[in-house]
Amino acid sequence: MDPLRLLGLFTFEVSGGESPARIYPMSLSEAPRTAKWPYLLADIVLVAVAATVASKAAPVWTWREIALVGGLTGLGAWIFIQPFAKDHEAAVKLFEQVNLASATERLGALDRAAQQITAATAQWQEIQALSSKTVNTAGTIAGQIAAEAKGFSEFLSRSNDGEKATLRLEVEKLRRSEKESLQVVLHLMDHCFALFQAAVASGQPQLIQQLGHYRNACIDVTRRVGLLPFEAQPGEAFDPERHEVADGAEAIPGALVGRTVAWGYTFQGVGIRRIQVALQSAPATEAAAEPPAA
């Protein structure tokens, strides 16, 4: 019997040098058996010798005969139990080897588990480091986004302020231009009114009619943009809210309008200039009725 089979190892047999090695796994479940027939034969011989000695001895045995028979019998018994003792010893060794192999395998499994735990711990540490880097990067990106958002808000605010200032300037320019244009239109309308008054003063009906049509056309044109002229009627009472003395004199209470010197105007429903008028002179009878001064 190959001793390697007793240890439960593997026997390697290589033949010819060209064919691959063949591996024979050895089982650890069965222990090798000891051949018992040599021991039984020796035991039978010893027992037979002891029986022969006992049969030839006198009825009263001497101590030598007792010692010989007892020694042969004991030696036979010892030889008889030797194969069983060897089998038991082999079984015990096999059991120990099996347990040792199982313990070694378990220790190997524990070693592999420890290696796996170590690898997993290293991986978790790497993951934690990557997570920390990711969190730091995210914080940096968030800070950059916040800074960019703040800068963009400031840029929009400056842009809005610049646009508001530009629009305000443009509105002021438009208002100034509108005011200047309105002043030009007012001057043109004043000249139109003066021209019609001169035609009336000339007493020529045809000229009065032509300039009247021209005046009405100018009034229609200015009405489209919201500018509306109006004049006072002779003899109506002087109203400071609607009338204004042309020469800048103060009007006495109860004064009457004599004639219209220049139109008054409303622009889009808002009065922008009062009617410039000339007052009627006081009658001579009223002047004579006044008591003489002391």
The overall pLDDT average reads 77
What topology, given as strand order, has the largest sheet? 3-6-7
Question: What is the global morphology?
Answer: rod-shaped
Multimer state: single chain
Q: Major sheet: size, sense and barrel closure?
A: 3 strands, antiparallel
- Low-confidence parts: 1-28, 283-294
Strand fraction equals 5-15%
What is the number of helical segments per DSSP (H or I, 4+ residues)?
5
Q: Tell me the distance between the termini.
A: 177 Å
Whole-number radius of gyration?
A: 72 Å
The counted number of beta strands is 8
Helix content: 55-70%
Structural class: mainly alpha
Secondary-structure element string: HEEHHHEEEEEEH
Topology at a glance:
Layout: H1 3-6, E1 10-13, E2 22-25, H2 37-56, H3 63-202, H4 205-224, E3 227-230, E4 243-245, E5 257-262, E6 264-267, E7 270-273, E8 275-279, H5 284-289
Parallel strand pairs: 4-8
Antiparallel strand pairs: 1-2, 3-6, 5-8, 6-7
Helix pairs in contact: 2-3, 3-4
Summarize it.
The protein is mainly α. The chain is 65% helix and 12% strand.
Defining traits:
3-stranded mixed sheet; mainly alpha; 294 residues; disordered C terminus
Describe the overall structure.
By secondary structure, the chain is mostly helical. Among the domains are: 3-108, no CATH class; 227-281, Roll (Nucleotide Exchange Factor Grpe, Chain A, domain 2). The chain is built from 5 helices and 8 strands; from the N terminus they run H-E-E-H-H-H-E-E-E-E-E-E-H. It has helices spanning 3-6, 37-56, 63-202, 205-224, 284-289; strands at residues 10-13, 22-25, 227-230, 243-245, 257-262, 264-267, 270-273, 275-279. The strands form 3 sheets. The chain has a 3-stranded antiparallel beta sheet. It has a 3-stranded mixed beta sheet with strand order 4-8-5. A two-stranded antiparallel ribbon has the order 1-2. A hairpin with a 2-residue loop joins strand 6 (264-267) and strand 7. Helix 3 runs antiparallel to helix 4. The protein starts with a helix and ends in a 5-residue tail after the last helix. Residues 1-28 and 283-294 have low confidence and may be disordered.
